[in-house]
Specification:
This protein is of the alpha+beta class. The protein is built from four helices and 13 strands. It has a six-stranded antiparallel β-sheet with strand order 1-2-10-7-12-5, with helices on one face.
Length: 203
């Protein structure tokens, strides 16, 4: 499995080998040894999520309070999507920066989003499926979002589709509003959390 650091620190892309044959194909989208080698700690899985989205559906940009935060490992087992990671950590040298990866059911690439980073995607096909491995369970009071269409962010959503958003995502604050309201994770808290995870990693 090939690992690549994204432009947003503490986010990684993973590309597994895919083995097609006359029956179909086989792949392993998540592989702990490769993850541990690239990230420095195991991926604790407290919950798995599954979403199905029509073309043009935008989900995000979502994040959680740190500590403890919620790390995510995501991949697309059906369809295709444009996955987006945003640095929402106040005090980060790359605050407001973002990167994208196309996830689909041909390459089975995965993306790891560390605690404190924002995450979202847009479905490029109907019936696109996203699978999520989450390091902590769903905790509604700790869940937040920012406006995925915030012009100050300038996220590269395709302009040839009609966007479909939840009411909650449409009403989410801009990045500046969330920062001014004190909603965003602090960079130093995130670094402390990453250090804690690495310290507890098996030798």
């Amino acid at each position: 499995m090939h690992a690549r650091a994204l432009a947003v620190p503490h986010a990684m892309e993973f590309t597994p080998p895919v083995f097609p044959d006359h029956r179909g194909l086989f792949t392993a989208p998540f592989q702990e040894p490769a993850f541990l080698d690239a990230v420095g700690h195991p991926m604790t899985v407290a919950q798995t999520n599954h979403s199905v989205s029509r073309r043009g559906t935008v989900r995000g940009i979502h994040f959680t309070d740190v500590p403890p935060g919620q790390g995510k490992y995501v991949y697309c087992p059906k369809g295709s999507l444009l996955d987006v990671v945003v640095d929402l950590r106040t005090g980060s040298p790359t605050f407001g920066a973002w990167d994208t990866v196309t996830l689909d059911s041909h390459t089975f690439r995965g993306v790891y989003i560390a605690e404190g980073l924002g995450h979202g995607f847009i479905a490029l096909d109907d019936d696109t499926v996203m699978s999520y491995l989450c390091s902590t369970s769903y905790n509604p009071p700790a869940e937040h979002g920012i406006d995925p269409l915030d012009p100050a962010l300038g996220l590269p959503w395709p302009d040839d589709v009609e966007y479909v958003l939840s009411d909650k995502d449409r009403a989410a604050p801009s990045l500046a509003e969330a920062r001014d309201a004190g909603l965003l994770p602090r960079y130093e808290d995130c670094l402390a959390r990453y250090a804690e995870l690495r310290a507890n990693a098996p030798a």
